[in-house]
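User
Class, as today's exercise, I want you to study this protein, comparing sequence with structure tokens, and judge whether sequence predicts the tokens.
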Amino acid sequence: MKILELNELARTITRTLSTHFIHTRKNFWDTTSSLTDEEFPKSFRMSRCDFRQLVDIVRKDLNRIKAMATLRNGAIEAEARVALVLRILSGSSYLDMMLI
């Protein structure tokens, strides 16, 4: 399928599902704003500044076709994806992921 066809399919499905529950994704920075400058590195093994730089480096590789993101109620933002990977690699539990 071409990207234009995927986008049209996504619009059609979105219109069809509009009467169903639509999940609104949380913003990563809103959910981590309560972490102090001492707590953030303990959770993600790097400072906020380094985290932002890492996200900027990998962001373009994490972007997906817009149609697929629409089918799933929006794309998971790059910050959340990087945070999940860092938390898993640092040895946290999968149960801890709901905090991100």
Observations:
- Residues 3-99 form one domain.
